[in-house]
Amino acid sequence: MRRDYFTIDASNLDTPGVPTVAIDFEGPTEQLVERLTRTDGEPLASDEMDVAFRLQGPVEDDPEGVVAVTNRVTGEFVLELNADSEDVLKFIEAAREYGKEAGESHRYRIRVSIDGDQLLEQEKGTFLVYDANGDLLRHHSLIPSGVEL
Fold first, then answer.
1. Which end of the chain offers a freer environment for a tag, N or C, measured as fewer CB atoms within 10 Å?
2. pTM exceeding 0.85
3. Given the DSSP bridges, would you call strands 6-11 and 128-130 parallel, antiparallel or unpaired?
4. Distances (CA, A) of 123 to 3, 21, 111, 127
């Protein structure tokens, strides 16, 4: 699946409500549906998926990066798409603040749609950020308290 088949949009960054990232796919659907589905035909659960952002340059330069959703069980990529680091880091900060104010362990929502039809919606608490060398940037990541990586 090509990255340009995906669009990403964030909401509830400056307003009340759960910060939400919506990913829409406009391409051949079979492979994405297969990647988002377990072998028993059910959609992957929230604890079976990880969300991360890999910068393509120094964070202080506001580079582009790649948002990746992976299958935690198999380690396979579910999807990848290009995104602006400033937007992603703003989203993570909004999710961090929402978690503090609401006392929620799930700090944001992710929705995946195909041509506008919602396929998956999950509440998440972790969003990891890596530099261009693959090193975890803890300060920029959304990591629930008590979680060791």
1. C
2. yes
3. unpaired
4. 23, 10, 9, 11
Residue 32, SS3 per DSSP: helix
Q: What is the chain's pLDDT, residue by residue, as a tens digit (149 residues)?
A: 899 999 999 999 998 899 999 999 999 999 999 999 998 999 999 999 999 999 999 999 999 999 999 999 899 999 999 999 999 999 999 999 999 888 877 899 999 999 999 999 999 999 999 999 999 999 999 997 755 55
The three-state secondary structure class of 61 is helix
**Nearest residue to 109 (alpha-carbon basis) of 2, 8, 4, 11:** 11
Residue 83's Cβ-side half-sphere holds a number of Cα atoms within 13 Å equal to 26
Task: Supply φ then ψ for residue 110, to 5 degrees.
Answer: -120, 135
| Helix (H) or strand (E) segment spanning residue 68 | strand 64-71
Q: Which residue carries 């297969």 as its tokens?
A: 34
Residues with Cβ < 8 Å from 65, sequence gap 6 or more? 53, 54, 55, 56, 82, 83, 84, 85, 88
End-to-end CA gap in the chain: 29
